[in-house]
Amino acid sequence: MIRVEGVSKTFAGGFQALKSVDLEIRRGEIFALLGPNGAGKTTLISVICGLVNASAGRVLVDGHDNVLDYRAARQMIGLVPQELTNEAFTTVWDTVSFSRGLFGKPKDPGHIEKVLRSLTLWEKRRNRQLELSGGMKRRVLIAKALAHEPQVLFLDEPTAGVDVELRREMWEVVRGLRDQGVTIILTTHYIEEAEEMADRIGVIRRGEIVLVEEKGALMRQLGSKELTLHLHEPLDAVPESLAGHALALVDDGHALVYSYDAASQEDGSTISGLLADLEAVGLRVKDLHTRQSSLEDIFVSLVRERA
Fold first, then answer.
1. 10 Å Cβ neighbour count for 101?
2. What b/e readout covers 275-307, taking b as 16+ CB neighbours within 10 angstroms?
3. Is 303 a member of any domain?
4. Could you tell me if residue 233 is inside a domain?
5. Which SS3 state, helix, strand or coil, does residue 147 take?
6. What is the DSSP letter of 107?
């Protein structure tokens, strides 16, 4: 649906925000773009949407060059910006309807009603936006982006400042749009949001895409697991015969922690060997539990490795 080819962006002051970015986003997927502050997320979105001119490279939206065929490319896209930019004295109905008209679409009250109802805004349709809460104002931004029936929706930090309940409701709305065939590109600081929703994950750092991967594959490839073994009797040190297992003694000697690569140890043979060796030296285990690394752990590790 979107193809970014060798896109770079250098601003007038000499700062290079994007460095030869190549990226493909598939039709109908939810793609999460992660990166620390200043990594280039918003600049990349702005270039794709045609709001910022690239210094080099090109962007195709469903085959339309977003410079040479700007109108066709831009009509495919809905953008929910990071900042609240609503018109304070305009009613919800009027501002969403106006956004549809900006793209040359004929009036369609039925579609506007459908969008407002899907975002729980129908009862607020006659309210001026200054009367709305911050969460409701952000929903209005999404409604405006959907007013012209785009095939691609960019969500730049869509749930910033939104409470947990409202955030989860908005996740359901986004999933519903994906089920209708809309391609979703999401930037977020809430890593759990990407973990919950995304089909694929991209990581950008200092203007460069450092990784693009299926979420499940990323978790398997870069994730790690920890097995914590709680002992009946505390130890002063790890027995020498267990040195090959790289165990760490924690909790004042009451527990052993074994870290391993989740992908390479799926058959459990190493853990079986560890338990057999524990039994051989007479260590009794009263409880054990495992912990799988989260997407946040993986993201922090990736950014640190490339620092």
1. 12
2. bebbeeeebeeeeeeeeebebebbbeebbeeee
3. no
4. yes
5. coil
6. P
Query: Could you tell me if residue 143 is inside a domain?
Result: yes
What is the pTM assigned to this prediction?
A: 0.72
Report how far residue 223's alpha carbon sits from residue 294's, in angstroms, rounded to the nearest whole number: 7
Question: What pLDDT is recorded for position 174?
Answer: 84
CA distance 132 to 265: 52
Which tokens belong to 215? 């979420």
Phi, psi at 169, each rounded to 5°: -60, -40
Domain limits for position 263: 224-293
**Alpha-carbon gap, residue 65 to 51, rounded angstroms:** 14
Q: Is 78 buried (19+), middle (13-18) or exposed (0-12) by CB count in 10 A?
A: buried
Domain boundary among 187, 219, 251: 219
- Residue 267: predicted pLDDT: 45
Q: Alpha-carbon dihedral of residues 71, 77, 81, 85, nearest 10 degrees?
A: 60
Instruction: Tell the residue number behind the tokens 């870069």, with chain if given.
Output: 222
Q: Which of 219, 253, 273 is the last residue of a domain?
A: 219
Domain co-membership, 24 together with 150:
yes
User: Which pLDDT value is given to residue 98?
Assistant: 94
DSSP 132: S
Distance of CA 185 to the CA centre of its chain: 8
The amino acid occupying position 246 is: A
Q: Tell me the two tokens of residue 72.
A: 């066709």
Mean pLDDT by 10 residues, the chain (307 residues): 96 93 95 87 93 95 95 93 79 95 93 92 94 86 93 85 72 85 86 82 89 78 73 85 82 83 54 82 82 63 60
Buried b (16+ CB within 10 A) or exposed e, 128-161: bbeebeebbbbbbbbbbbbbbebbbbbbbbbbee
User: Is 102 within the bounds of a domain?
Assistant: yes
CATH number for the domain harbouring residue 69: 3.40.50.300
